Amino acid sequence: MNLNQYYTMTYTLNSGIKGTVNLSTKQIQDWIESYRIGSKYVTTLGKEHFGLNPELVADFKVHNEFSEQREHVAAIQPKAASKASEQLADAYSQRKTLIQVECKCGASYIEESAYKRNKWGCKECGDIVFLDSKKGMVETVKGKAWYMTNRYFVERG
Length: 157
Known about the structure:
Helix content: 25-40%
Oligomer: single chain
């Protein structure tokens, strides 16, 4: 362990304020000991004095060669992250609700929604179409869908 090498320590105070300080390996060891026993830590950084009360520090992290390595490893693995996000997107798409829209402007199409709705905007003219709960779900080429229209009066309730 090289005692003259400096590392960046990031800390967060209980108030939420974050700070960083460059410390030598020896200073880091002293800080960790002060944090462990709860005594105030004071050191010299060049010509400045730096003090930190461990009772006011919520957490801290020392960025060393090992933490830098972890950052590089995490950056090399975007495929795993994209695989996880694909699985999440698939899970959400399985939960989507189909909506059959028939508008008085003549538009008729199937739309996907994250959840069942009582009203929807026609993508052609922007008019509002309403859920016909009496008609319920209708069969479409994409599967069963909730029927929404403004071609006739729909009881809302």
